[in-house]
């Protein structure tokens, strides 16, 4: 019996002038990437660059949503400001962010 494991990693967490992690090298060893959607980490340019490299390497991508909390990396806001209707909207918006970043030239 053969067992296959899909190695996944959180990616595209840099923003602006800040590179966080070595996305290009990590993409070479994983099967899927969770793309930070810009609220807790990442920005549209980093998202697009990471998705393009993942596509080139045959790595599947998915959305990695987070709370609107760059300072606390998406963690502190969820503790202090948990409101389900608001959070559903935040996650819906971020779930569509990778596709939007990919489509915009």
Please outline what is shown here.
The protein is α/β, with parallel strands linked by helices and 105 residues long. It contains 5 helices and 3 strands, in the order E-H-E-H-E-H-H-H. It has a single domain, classed as Glycoside hydrolase/deacetylase (TIM Barrel, Alpha-Beta Barrel), CATH 3.20.20.
What would you note in describing this structure?
It is a single chain. This protein has 105 residues and is an alpha/beta fold. The chain has one domain: Glycoside hydrolase/deacetylase (TIM Barrel, Alpha-Beta Barrel). The protein is built from five helices and three strands. The protein has helices spanning 23-27, 44-57, 76-80, 84-95, 97-103, and strands at 8-11, 32-36, 60-64. It has a three-stranded parallel sheet. Strand 1, helix 1 and strand 2 (32-36) form a beta-alpha-beta unit. Helix 2 (44-57) crosses helix 5 (97-103). It is globular and about 45 Å long. The mean pLDDT is 82.
Number of strands: 3
Q: For the report, how would you describe the main beta sheet?
A: 3 strands, parallel
| Helical fraction | 40-55%
CATH class: Alpha Beta
Strand order of the largest sheet: 1-2-3
Overall morphology? globular
Low-confidence stretches: none
Contiguous helical run count: 5
Mean pLDDT, nearest integer? 82
Beta strand % = 5-15%
| CATH hierarchy: architecture | Alpha-Beta Barrel
Write the layout of secondary structure elements.
Elements: E1 8-11, H1 23-27, E2 32-36, H2 44-57, E3 60-64, H3 76-80, H4 84-95, H5 97-103
Parallel strand pairs: 1-2, 2-3
Helix pairs in contact: 2-5
């Amino acid at each position: 019996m053969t067992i296959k494991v899909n190695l996944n990693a959180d990616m595209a967490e840099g923003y602006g002038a800040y590179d966080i992690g070595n996305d290009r090298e990590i993409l070479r060893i994983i099967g899927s990437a969770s793309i930070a959607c810009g609220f807790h980490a990442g920005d549209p340019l980093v998202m697009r660059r990471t998705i393009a490299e993942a596509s080139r390497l045959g790595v599947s991508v998915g959305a990695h949503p987070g709370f609107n909390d760059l300072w606390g990396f998406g963690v502190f806001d969820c503790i202090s400001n948990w409101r389900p209707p608001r959070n559903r909207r935040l996650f819906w918006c971020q779930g569509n962010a990778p596709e939007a970043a990919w489509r915009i030239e």
